[in-house]
């Protein structure tokens, strides 16, 4: 048997034997416990009264979360921090929003909304793993909280985990069946799952799109997103590796191109998350523009590809 498994089995048997020596169990329950010990010893071939076997105190490994008493005063103060966090979200000050939501959670750790709102802020800061943790915490507190599943789906989509994103959006629709955003994101995740294995350079021969770049450059959400990317240490490391590959010799060019493509793909994913309607406007501009926002039909066009995930709705 694996040494770790052996230690675990020995520890469980040791715990059960210690319970037999206590006074909290009736004779009938002790008899049942003795049978359980014998079954474990037989199944895992453990000899009785072994000396020198390694065991672990299992109870010492269990950490009980201290219950926080939430008074009416703490509840009111927590709501104040949540409101401040929501205001920071509207102003695109996402780290400040995280700080306020964290203060609310410290005062009242049993409100699922606080975790869900902080998850939205983490997503904007490109901290998707933290967002996933907060969404899961919100779901523990309120298993029917549709918005938590929706934001969980967005975080998984940002990490290209479309199978998990699909499950999250599906559950979100279960609790909020009329939410159009969840329905759209569910379809997008399904399409990307299907296209992930066969997606290559399908648009390699396409010509440049005559987009209005000022619409992109002046978009405050995109500006904020770009600021976050440029200040990210991982981005700096990626660019440094790219420059080093190119400056050494031409042999490093394929790797540099691949690095640049990865950076572009990551940046493009953030663009669609920050401004999901941007590419639609680009398409309308390419087709001559349409004031009412409707694209003219084209019977010879290829089937429409997956749309970007819709932008998350505001904080609760």
Automatic annotation (TrEMBL):
It comes from the Eukaryota. Residues 5-51 form the SGTA homodimerisation domain. GO terms for molecular function: molecular adaptor activity. Residues 304-316 have a biased composition (Basic and acidic residues). The keyword NADP does not apply. It holds the Pfam family SGTA_dimer. TPR repeats lie at residues 78-111, 146-179. One of its GO terms (cellular component) is membrane. Coiled coil: none annotated. The keyword Repeat applies. GO terms for biological process: post-translational protein targeting to endoplasmic reticulum membrane. Keywords: Repeat, TPR repeat. Belongs to the SGT family. This is SGTA homodimerisation domain-containing protein. It comes from Dendroctonus ponderosae. The lineage of its organism: Eukaryota, Metazoa, Ecdysozoa, Arthropoda, Hexapoda.
